[in-house]
Amino acid sequence: MVVAAPHLRADAQRNLERILEAARATFAEQGLEASVADIAQRAGVGTATIFRRFPTKPSLVAAIIAGELTTMLTLARTAAESADPGQALGEFMGHAAGTLIENRCLCEASGETLLELPRLRELMSE
Question: pTM for the full model?
């Protein structure tokens, strides 16, 4: 997952990418009960490094969900523009179902207030 954050040093950008990838994988495997310490260990950074970028665990979870929703939105737009809409819809639905099956975080977040955050509401309304 590549995320460009404006004005970050190269090492800070690498840390951000490692944090987000580790968080995505950890939350997918363990769900919302995953600890920031587990994510930090997986990313090879300290918890303070994570909390400098994401002040709370819910803000980190929201960033992961935003990334997943952005991917889904891109796939949906690509499917909508396809010359073969039936095949494109099947591929999109297969990806969406696979993501939900493999990602505990997304399933567990569906009942959380996280989805009420402005950026996530914006993505879901697109």
Answer: 0.76
